[in-house]
Amino acid sequence: MNIRQYRYVSVIVCTYNRRKIFDECFESLLNQSYPKDKYEIVIIDSSDDFTDELVKSYQEKAKKYGIRLKYLYQEPKGLAAARNFGIENAKGEIICFTDDDCVADRFWVEKLVEGFDNERVGGVGGKILIYNQEGLGRYLPSVDQYSLINDWSFISGANMAYRRDILEYIGGFDPLFKFGADDADIAIRVRLGGYTLKYSEEAVIYFRHRSNLRELIRQQYGYGIGFSRLGKKYPNLQIRKAIFLLLIKLIWNIATFPGCLMKKDKKQIVRRAINIILVSSYLIGVISGYVSVKYPEEKIIPCDFKFFKPLAEDFLREKIKNKFRLK
């Protein structure tokens, strides 16, 4: 690609009280293969330790790399609100998002931008791998971004990019999603706008799982609440089918747990036990969200979801067969 053809890109990262791991994320964004004068970094920081001196240190570091940096503070209002604030202060034609617990591959920005190869591509998501991690993280799977995009029409917020004009057209992220699923909501609205989502295997992000079981449970419970809000906003989404798949996953893990005990397979025992706990936490979050979390009736979107594969009966049957198929 000729240097004149490079689109200007904004990379937005929102952070909250995770200074140490954020610093590694920031470092990876400074070392991108994309031309330094063709992208900017926009940081929205809601941390307790935010100071002018801290901002200055980051600005000086970015300046050494020749990269434009906007480092802004916002009172904690949730991730969706922080991302919207980032968009308001960004100049890029393409806007890339990742999280403060992630580390970007050197070619991440370049490969995401390459995915916008025609005007109907509204969003691009890349591969998500597990960062070099010890403890419980060793037993947890990576995010299957390919399936999220092609089956569920979602893009994980850890590794996603959208055209700025589309984000503005659909009104940005929904700030009512404070417990997760804001990334699923934005992807749905992009698809409803008539645009496609694309998977870029070479746009790689390395993701850190939560470091202990308590944090993992809290995270999954919050995701469950966010998912319930998604169902309230889009009543025709029929997320009960997705919940049914989660129940199948839970039953499968419980059913195979005794076999792992008999084989004395420590890795599988720990993996099954963690999956049982986390899927249960997610489902409890979904139930709790439906009971306690309201969504404004005037913002409900009763629309068709022809692009959503899980609504098809053959999709559910195939998923169930694959889960219980003997290997």
Describe the overall structure.
- The protein is an alpha/beta fold.
- It has two domains: 7-209, Spore Coat Polysaccharide Biosynthesis Protein SpsA, Chain A (Alpha-Beta Complex), CATH 3.90.550; 216-324.
- It is 46% helix and 17% strand.
- It is built from eleven helices and eight strands.
- The chain has helices spanning 19-30, 52-65, 79-88, 108-114, 145-150, 164-170, 182-192, 213-233, 240-263, 266-292, 313-324; strands spanning 9-15, 39-45, 68-73, 94-99, 102-104, 121-130, 160-163, 196-207.
- Strands 3-2-1-4-7-6-8-5 form an eight-stranded mixed β-sheet, with helices on both faces.
- The longest helix is centred in the last third of the chain and has 27 residues, at 266-292.
- It starts with 8 loop residues before the first strand and ends with a helix.
- The model has no long low-confidence stretch (mean pLDDT 89).
Task: Summarize, please.
With 327 residues, the protein is α/β, with parallel strands linked by helices. The chain is 46% helix and 17% strand. The chain has an eight-stranded mixed beta sheet, with helices on both faces.
Total domain units: 2
What is the CATH superfamily of the largest domain? Spore Coat Polysaccharide Biosynthesis Protein SpsA, Chain A
What is the CATH architecture annotation of the largest domain?
Alpha-Beta Complex
Helix vs. strand class: alpha/beta
The total beta strand count reads 8
CATH class of the largest domain: Alpha Beta
| Overall spatial form | globular
Beta-strand content: 15-25%
Mean pLDDT over all positions: 89
Helix content: 40-55%
Task: Output the helix-strand order.
Answer: EHEHEHEEHEHEHHEHHHH
State the helix count: 11
Side-by-side strand order of the widest sheet: 3-2-1-4-7-6-8-5
Distance between the termini: 45 Å
In quaternary terms, these chains amount to: single chain
Regions with pLDDT < 50 over 5+ consecutive residues?
none
- Looking at CATH, which topology of the largest domain would you report? Spore Coat Polysaccharide Biosynthesis Protein SpsA, Chain A
